[in-house]
Specification:
This protein is 15% helix and 36% strand. The chain has 276 residues and is of the alpha+beta class. A hairpin with a 3-residue loop joins strand 6 and strand 7.
Length: 276
């Protein structure tokens, strides 16, 4: 992709403006979940969003995808990073607020606010997010490195082949432990129109969340993911999840004997529907 400069901030002066799919790294408009955006004098940016299917309660992976798209748009339009640069997600997290209505964030009518939390090093962006759905429903943050495409190619060619031992810290509250695999499903709305030369961080998040649901976990309240190494498409990465009796979980993602990502969070078990 050519590196195209952004001529001016989108939605400046508090005016709502449409979001071009390219600014959230999507080819097709239906996969761009931000619909309109406006920017305030403070530099904070608000975007209206939706997640499919309409009207359903959003999974935490869907809310993180909203957050990811909002971050991409912000970095392009507010930090002036050209389209065509490569974004390397290092960390992303989201926590549902306890005062949100039953902890649920509906698919339609939401607004995500994005703001700059500063940088620690050149080529890095640290962003904060607040998702609103009738009230403050979730808060999150993300850290990303931004590099030109030629620099990214050099980084990929110098991938460290040395082994890294995977260690799982013991938990006194441990109740359950099981293994899973990262097998991306391109039909999942979170992963549509999201191609990379390596497995994306969102594919890892969706895989861990899906495994929790298979084990009877109805809703994840918070999730934090850190990505240490690139995950290749082959061999298929595996992960180990430890779910403790206090509702916290931790997943270590491994490929070729190396720890590539860590995911932690809190979850609630499935609640049987009321007969009322």
């Amino acid at each position: 992709m050519n590196e195209t400069m952004i001529s001016r901030p989108a939605g400046a002066n508090g005016v709502w403006m449409p979001v071009p799919p390219a600014l959230v790294h999507k080819t097709h408009g239906e996969n761009a979940w931000l619909t309109e955006v406006r920017t305030y004098a403070s530099g904070e940016q608000h975007a209206r969003y939706h997640t499919p299917p309409e009207g359903a309660d959003a999974r935490i992976s869907e809310l993180i995808e909203v957050q990811r798209q909002a971050g991409l748009h912000y970095v392009h339009t507010q930090l002036g990073i050209p389209i065509g640069f490569v974004f390397l997600l290092e960390q992303i997290s989201l926590r549902r607020k306890a005062d949100a209505t039953h902890g649920k964030l509906r698919a339609s009518g939401g607004v995500v606010a994005t703001f700059n939390r500063g940088t620690r090093r050149k080529g890095e962006a640290c962003l904060g997010f607040t998702l609103h759905s009738g009230g403050t429903a979730a808060e999150g943050e993300a850290r990303v490195r931004v590099v030109p495409s030629n620099a990214y190619e050099r980084l990929r060619s110098r991938s460290d082949p040395s082994p890294m031992l995977v260690k799982t810290a013991p938990s006194r509250l441990q109740a359950t432990q099981w293994n899973g695999v990262v097998a991306p499903d391109s039909s999942d709305p979170v992963l549509r129109d999201h191609s990379n030369d390596h497995l994306s961080g969102m594919a890892v998040i969706v895989a861990v969340e899906g495994e929790l649901r298979e084990r009877g976990i109805d809703r994840v309240d918070s999730l934090s993911a850190e990505f240490h190494l690139y995950l290749e498409h082959t061999p298929q990465p595996t992960f180990t999840v430890v779910l403790s009796t206090d509702g916290t979980f931790r997943a270590l993602v491994e490929q070729n004997g190396r720890q590539c990502a860590t995911i932690a969070g809190t979850a609630l078990p499935t609640v049987e529907p009321s007969n009322r």
